Amino acid sequence: ASTLGESASAKGRYFGTAVAANHLGEAPYAATLNTEFNSVTPENEMKWDALEASRGSFTYGTADRIVSHAQSRGMKVRGHTLVWHSQLPGWVGSLGAGDLRTAMNNHITQVMRHYQGKIHSWDVVNEAFQDGSSGARRSSPFQDKLGNGFIEEAFRTARAADPAAKLCYNDYNTDGVNAKSNAVYAMVKDFKQRGVPIDCVGFQSHFNSQSPVPADYRQNLQRFADLGVDVQITELDIEGSGAAQASSYANVVQACLAVTRCTGITVWGVTDKYSWRASGTPLLFDGDYNKKPAYASTLAALGGG
Ligand code: G3I
């Protein structure tokens, strides 16, 4: 196969990218997206501030444009993200506990029902754990007012809203075995033991020289898979250039392919031009949509070429 999506598909995986609705009208952006990828994640358009900026009033238009673009071309869609401390409208943070619980469950239910049947996996809860050695939860309106049980409640609400969608917990700096991934691992293990609905864990995989692809990346993905959940690489980007970047991308693809339950890879953007890393070059296509060495190594690692 000659594209990322087709090559991944031949291995039983999807190969996706984050997409921003405001770039879909740029011809080379759309052409690269349509040719190479078979799954999309809206980069910002499904976040709480985009969908429910004021309480109870839902605005789906921009996210819907991405979903229809994907659906009309046979691409899958990942939903990102229902409950997150960031890009949260101010009104959510000023609610008391009872109202906050109602608002969280209503947001999950409304959004998942709107997209029912169109989203293969949802990031139900994003980035709920702290960095560092504590393994503790991160402070957020949900954590601070609802306590540890908010994650479990969000997943139960999500299952009821759309029983067919895969429900994921998603985080960063959990890509290797470390205190933070150990804390997520313990939560997933507990959920599986108690029958709390969870189907997948997303590993964002934002790598740079300070935080390179961990040597135990595959081992970490495998230990989560062994708990009985799928694993997905959800926001992959790797700072750098040339052969070093190419080799890191190949390592990530090989790790996913080595884990049967690693169901797909999403890179966090089509082109370096629009990466969230403002001056960085962490993606597979350069600012002029030329294929980088990392593209070739990724395609080869997927068995394409
Ligand atoms: O929409 C406004 C626009 O109206 C305004 O003119 C412009 C001026 O700055 O800002 C626009 O909003 C920006 C938004 O992206 C859309 O472009 C925000 O300022 C900016 O903060 C926001 O950044 C996003 C970031 O999440 C916010 O947390 C990035 O695009 C997005 O790539 C990034 O994605 C996150 C994942 O969701 C979770 N994991 C980490 C990942 C990288 O940070």
From TrEMBL:
The keyword Hydrolase applies. Residues 1-301 form the GH10 domain. Its EC number is 3.2.1.8. The keyword Hydrolase applies. Keywords: Carbohydrate metabolism, Glycosidase, Hydrolase, Polysaccharide degradation, Signal, Xylan degradation. The active site is at 235 (nucleophile). Belongs to the glycosyl hydrolase 10 (cellulase F) family. This is Beta-xylanase. The chain holds residues 32 to 336 of 443 of the full protein.
